[in-house]
Amino acid sequence: MGIDDQPFFMRWSLPWGKFWSSTWTRRHTLGGRWFPLEAFLIGWMGIGVPYVITNNIAYMYLSDTFEVFPESPWDRQIPVIPWMVFPYAGLYIYYPGSIALCPNSDRGRMELLSTMQMMVAATMFCVFFFLTMPAEIDMRDAIDWDVMTPSEKGMFKFIHDGDHPWNAWPSLHVIHSYLLGRMMTHWVRTDYWNSVLAKPFLVCLWTEWVLLVISTMTTKQHYMFDAGSGLVVGFIVFKLWEPALQYIDAKGTEQVAQDLGWGTTLKTSIEAVRLTDWPTEHDDSDSIHV
């Protein structure tokens, strides 16, 4: 069975042939180190731009869809824990971390493209709710700035200045960190498992993720419902996306590349160069006359 015969979500999860074809031709640039950065920058445009636009639209033009929901009586009872702003900001380490861990192989590159697509898809799914059911997270008044250290104040200010208290649910902070965590875990197990640092790294990774999820509430950046709905969406997206990883592994990157049209294009280009550079028996200019 080819890619066209696969279920809809499988076709959506696998790299989009025409969209990524140009990027794929540059996969060996700088010894393969350029490819993860280019793929990530393209993917980030589909993640960051929609988030910033909807966050500002909600802040300037929209109002709460509900007077109470998604805030619950328990949200106000959760204490503010200032130092947990650092686990919250840990999400911004997950992004470069995924680039650093991406294997310098065609399999790793295909998996990275698939990862970027799923994160963009998850973001656009959430954007729908951000715009149709906007919710303001009006709990920043519970933060006591006087008990914070200078570094905690600086981090809170950095987050507040760049992120209006909207785009509440589902929490993209939870979704993105979960998807990137699963991808990094996959690469550690397939490519770095023999390293003595593999298991300690995974322990640190998922400890940070648990703290990150909790910190969405203890920094008053999200309600409990936001974090819970983010967990649900993250789990579902990964389950829909995971078969694509298995498909790439089972088929092999060469076959998948050909099915996507990349292998055919590369082969045609190579043959064209050969036909152009190789002299024919009728080319008098390259003939040797005795």
Structure description:
The protein has 290 residues and is mainly α. The chain has one domain. It contains twelve helices and no strands. Helix 8 packs antiparallel against helix 9, helix 8 runs parallel beside helix 10 and helix 11 packs across helix 12. It is globular. The relative contact order is 0.16. The C terminus is likely disordered.
Strand content: under 5%
Structural class of the helix and strand makeup?
mainly alpha
Number of domains: 1
> What coarse outline follows from CA principal-axis ratios?
globular
- What string, H for helix and E for strand, traces the elements in order? HHHHHHHHHHHH
pLDDT < 50 runs, ≥5 residues: 264-290
Distance between the amino and carboxyl termini = 57 Å
Largest sheet: none
Descriptive keywords:
0% strand; mainly alpha; 290 residues
Summarize the structure.
It contains twelve helices and no strands. It is mostly helical.
